[in-house]
Amino acid sequence: MNDLLNFHACLAIIVMIDIASYEGIDAVKIGDISKRIGVSASYLQKILTELRKSGLVISVPGPSGGIRTIKSPSEITIASIAECFSITKLGGYHLTDNAWQKYREDLENYLCTITLDRYIDKQ
What is the span of the domain harbouring residue 26? Predict the structure, then answer.
């Protein structure tokens, strides 16, 4: 697996799809996300912290508060989510093999064309 789609990035994509599916309805509570995707709330907080730092989600305070996307799902690419968790950004090593780098670039270019709204049921 390359550094663009590591475990944290894949989980963040699932989290963002979950949050985006409630766009325009309500802010999503962390406990509800945790139950739906089967990840502990404390681990989910770590993922959400990186998504907040990257400007993809905000916390809404108050009794009906929770998490919301900052942009509409049609404006958030899968690549922008995955990039928050790339090994390079998080301080890990980076493979320099030319073929691997080309593969990573191709994958990133493709993921830049996919937005969250593709995965949201619009009933």
Answer: 3-119
Q: How many domains does the chain have?
A: 1
Quick: pLDDT tens for 2-61. 455 678 888 999 999 999 988 878 889 999 999 999 999 999 999 999 999 999 999 999
Contact 35, 53 (CB under 8 A): no
Cα separations in angstroms, 26 against 15, 84, 88, 112, 117: 15, 24, 34, 27, 17
Q: pTM for the full model?
A: 0.75
The answer to whether 84 and 50 have CB atoms below 8 angstroms apart is yes
User: Rounded to an integer, what distance in angstroms lies between the CA atom of residue 35 and that of residue 76?
Assistant: 24
- At 91 the three-state DSSP class reads coil
- The Cβ of residue 19 has, within 10 Å, a number of other Cβ atoms equal to 23
Taking residue 123's Cβ as centre, other Cβ atoms within 10 Å add up to 3
Q: 38: domain CATH number?
A: 1.10.10.10
The alpha carbons of the chain give a radius of gyration, in whole angstroms, of 15
